[in-house]
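hiii so um. not sure if this is the right channel but i have a protein structure encoded as tokens and i wanna go backwards to a sequence. like what aa goes where. can anyone help
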């Protein structure tokens, strides 16, 4: 009989990718995904540690799961409970001490060892803790069978870990040092995805533009070269990548934005702050002007580029002047969308121990609101510039209203339009006629041209 597997995923897209791979790894053991934790045979919390209260959230979720585990036991069943991801990596055995009903704790680099861990957890007396950084790469050992993309837009993990050591960030500690997959492996996975109907691939990595995978020619390939090779795969219409560091935008990658039509004109390029003093304290290794110049170069190659970024307000020692520099940078660059966060001290990171320099919560709040106000205004203004344009949209979801489909524009906005269900998974031209804070609306202009008799004569095309 099939066993039910429930995975709850927190945090970034890398975790979404990892959770999908855990499903693949566990399939040969008879586990099938379910969307409810109660009654499941295995529950995995795939956790994120990047910002505040992550571990507290995990412990309270584990409390709820314990009740379901007890119910299952009362019916004579067994629910295996696991904590995976970055909180698992950071807290390790501590989790088992605080939540003894947990059977397995394993870090992001070990899930290819899940089958052995499950056997050990189910048969053995104690729980399994695995926070190793194994010598073998999980990517070499993941099964190819059972690999089923969820829709026409898929993630593909190409790089993991980070050597940048920004002073606020836990990633170099939880995900380890930088690692790039081999080009042949990435291309094979991309071809498999396209074979399953995928039209858009987002290349993932904590610092994806630092990609330096071994090419089939034995040389090291950068991300630009990898993107050019992916663009040769028939049927792959759209390529994106996230997340990038400004220091790793090399000439070849910048050039790809102007020369590879499949590379979508949207780039998430976190800058964090506009103050050179704060950028130095963050160990970002670039200034505000470096970022401005980089954006200029990108826009020279691709004038239509939509930019996204991450900002932190209230980094230790941030003054009103530093914050004003951030607002100025945002005004100078102009973002189509962005994320902003209040600084939160992450234990073990250098910035957390800058005693006496921590910024007041109220000031952090105020600055966050100011930054969000400016970014929201820019986002609305950007969306309005799209009204009247015809954009390609990859329909990947059904809309709220009957007869409506939802998809993404090249610039990442959700677009809804009335469209027949058979256009799902297709790339269709949509004339944009409405702009909202978080989405666009429009009507399909290709995909079907009606004959006088009302029958469609043309299918959607890229
Ligand atoms: N506090 C606030 N925001 C953080 N980020 C990473 N670490 C912290 C922290 N300690 C933000 C950064 C990063 C994004 C993924 O999360 O802006 O780019
Ligand atoms: Fe963290 Fe990104 Fe800095 Fe790496 S580059 S340390 S992942 S913020």
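sure thing!! here u go:
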């Amino acid at each position: 009989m099939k066993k039910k597997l429930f995975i709850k995923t927190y945090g970034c897209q890398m975790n979404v990718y990892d959770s999908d791979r855990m499903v693949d790894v566990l399939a040969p053991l008879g586990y099938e995904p379910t969307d409810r934790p109660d009654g499941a045979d295995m529950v995995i919390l795939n956790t994120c540690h990047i910002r505040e209260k992550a571990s507290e959230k995990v412990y309270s979720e584990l409390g709820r799961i314990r009740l379901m585990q007890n119910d299952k036991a009362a019916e004579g069943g067994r629910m295996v409970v696991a904590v995976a991801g970055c909180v698992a990596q950071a807290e390790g055995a501590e989790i088992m001490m605080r939540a003894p009903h947990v059977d397995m704790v394993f870090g992001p680099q070990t899930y290819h060892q899940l089958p052995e861990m499950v056997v050990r957890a189910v048969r053995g007396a104690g729980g399994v803790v695995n926070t190793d950084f194994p010598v073998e790469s999980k990517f070499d050992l993941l099964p190819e069978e059972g690999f089923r993309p969820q829709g026409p837009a898929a993630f593909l993990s190409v790089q993991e870990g980070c050597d940048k050591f920004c002073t606020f960030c836990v990633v170099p500690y939880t995900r380890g040092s930088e690692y790039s997959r081999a080009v042949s492996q990435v291309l094979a996975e991309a071809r498999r995805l396209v074979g399953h109907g995928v039209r858009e691939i987002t290349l993932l990595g904590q610092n994806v533009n630092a990609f330096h995978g071994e090419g089939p020619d034995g040389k090291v390939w950068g991300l630009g070269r990898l993107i050019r090779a992916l663009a040769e795969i028939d049927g792959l219409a759209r390529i994106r990548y996230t997340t990038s560091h400004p220091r790793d935008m090399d000439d070849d990658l910048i050039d790809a934005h102007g020369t590879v039509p499949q590379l979508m004109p949207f780039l998430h390029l976190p800058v964090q702050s506009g103050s050179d003093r704060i950028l130095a304290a963050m160990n970002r290794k670039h200034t505000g002007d470096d970022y401005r110049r980089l954006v200029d170069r990108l826009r020279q190659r691709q004038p239509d580029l939509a930019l996204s970024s991450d900002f932190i307000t209230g980094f230790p020692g941030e003054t009103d002047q530093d914050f004003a520099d951030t607002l100025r940078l945002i005004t100078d660059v102009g973002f189509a969308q962005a994320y902003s966060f209040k600084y939160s001290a992450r234990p073990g990171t250098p910035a957390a121990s800058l005693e006496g320099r921590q910024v007041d919560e109220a000031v952090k709040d105020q600055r966050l609101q100011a930054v969000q106000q400016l970014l929201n205004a820019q986002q609305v203004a950007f969306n309005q510039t799209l009204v009247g344009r015809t954009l390609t949209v990859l329909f990947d979801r059904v809309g709220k209203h009957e007869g409506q489909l939802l998809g993404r524009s090249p610039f990442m906005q959700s677009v809804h339009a009335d469209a027949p269900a058979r256009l799902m998974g297709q790339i269709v031209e949509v004339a944009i006629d409405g702009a909202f804070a978080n989405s666009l609306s429009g009507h399909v202009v290709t995909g079907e041209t009606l004959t006088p008799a009302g029958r469609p004569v043309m299918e959607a095309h890229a």
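oh and Residues 162, 164-166, 169, 171-172, 206-207, 245 surround iron/sulfur cluster (ligand 2) (CB under 6 Å).
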